[in-house]
Amino acid sequence: MTKYKSSIKLENKDEIVSILNQQLADTFDLYSQLKQAHWNVKGMQFYALHKLFDELAREVSGYVDMIAERATALGGVAKGTVRMAAKTSRLPVSPDTFDNGEFTIKKLIERYAMVSESTKIVIDSTDSLGDKVTADLFTEVSRGIDKGLWFLESHLL
Hints:
Elements: H1 10-40, H2 46-73, H3 82-88, H4 101-128, H5 132-154
Helix pairs in contact: 1-2, 1-3, 1-4, 2-5, 4-5
């Protein structure tokens, strides 16, 4: 890892970059599954869900970029290719078919909830490693993921 000036202990940077790359894989996978749902959603709510999934994907894409850039800012390598993400993502594989909007929303809710939970965990982890900036970045990501989760869950009420 390249040595950049920072108040973060050098021995903690490797662990922080590892945390960032795991969240990058999960968040990038969430993005790709949103696009998959956007392209393939069917049913009575097609148009509204098609637009919603695309909007959510745009937001998640921004989080992917923030996470990757933070890893490189700390002197690490952002492991952000599709193949890299697929190897390490903790999210379930996307369904092959999307029978209807409700099915698709339920699958996305599962994945959003997983990313929401893991993001909250890494806020504390990165803060305890002395990286308040990364903790703050994940706080921003957490707010956005939770908002997206709320949008999805609201369709099932």
